[in-house]
Design goal:
Elements lengths: L1 H17 L13 H4 L5 E6 L2 E2 L3 E4 L2 E3 L1 H13 L2 E6 L5 H7 L4 E2 L7 H6 E3 L4 E10 L15 E4 L3 H10 L4 E4 L2 H9 L5 E5 H10 L3 E3 L5 E5 L2 E3 L3 H16 L2 H9 L4
Helix pairs in contact: 3-9, 3-10
The structure holds glutamine.
The site of glutamine has 13 residues, from loops.
């Protein structure tokens, strides 16, 4: 215990040397907090493993969701901060108030609506099936009895588990890891959203996406149940962004072949 306190004190002393900000290190509230107080923060929880909606480019998180959230923050006069986390941590982060919004190509589902509210839809997706070029799997029904890779807690995971049982599902933290497993013949197929599927198939030789999608879905922004004030503001901002063409412009920048 004592050791921990010492460690914290040392870290604080170091950060005090490195930066003038003392926040979080037990300093009394600085007057500056008020005078230089910047805009209220809009904290976006996401999982930046989902191109073209969110992914890393150099050391930045970019993509459709990052730009849509930035456009919303601009409209609301808020400062956007993006927190990258596991996909299944996003809803808990929003529920606990650690994040103000969850923007992650997130599909609106009845089950999620029990825990969070969703904004109006801003984009659409499909769950599609990726297989190796020489796979005997040609239709969704062919997945029966096969090993299907999914990203943990995504709708792909939920649907495959519902339809074929837990024993059919191999769960991965990243879609890209499921793709690697498919390339190594550890699994027979991957079920994932259509846009990341396009990226993964184009980046890896020997894979194809089946023409018949598994399910069609709507993407929306998740908010805490009690944060209806922000929900209203976000819906108004989204309506403006739809009307003035900004939303289409952002989406078309990342999704070229529609
Ligand atoms: N649309 C899927 C879902 O909401 C996947 C989202 C993601 O992997 N970021 O579950």
């Amino acid at each position: 215990m004592k050791k921990n306190i010492l460690k914290i004190a040392a870290v604080c002393a170091m950060s005090a040397l490195m930066m003038s900000a003392l926040a979080g290190c037990g300093a009394t509230k600085d007057k500056n907090d008020e005078t230089t107080a910047s805009a209220e923060k809009l904290i976006m929880a996401t999982n930046a493993e989902f191109p073209p909606y969110e992914y890393h480019e150099n050391d930045k998180i970019v993509g459709i969701d990052a730009e849509v959230a930035q456009a919303i923050a601009d409209k609301l006069g808020m400062e956007l901060e993006i927190e990258d986390m596991a996909f299944d941590s996003i809803i808990p982060a929003v529920q606990s108030g650690k994040a103000s919004i969850g923007v992650a190509g997130m599909t609106v589902t009845e089950d999620r609506l029990v825990n969070v509210n969703f904004s109006d839809t801003y984009s659409h997706g499909k769950q599609v099936i990726i297989v190796k070029d020489d796979s005997p799997i040609a239709l969704p029904d062919d997945l029966k009895g096969k090993k299907v890779g999914v990203q943990t807690s995504t709708t792909g995971d939920i649907y495959i588990t519902d339809d074929y049982g837990d024993e059919s599902v191999e769960r991965y933290q990243k879609g890209a890891d499921a793709i690697q497993a498919l390339l190594q013949d550890k699994i027979d197929a991957v079920v994932i959203d259509s846009e990341p599927a396009k990226v993964f198939v184009s980046e890896n030789e020997g894979l194809k996406t089946l023409d018949t999608p598994y399910v069609e879905e709507d993407y929306a922004i998740a908010l805490a149940k009690d944060n209806t004030e922000l929900l209203d503001k976000i819906n108004s901002a989204l309506a403006e962004l739809k009307q003035d063409g900004t939303l289409d412009k952002i989406i078309n920048k990342y999704i070229t072949s529609k």
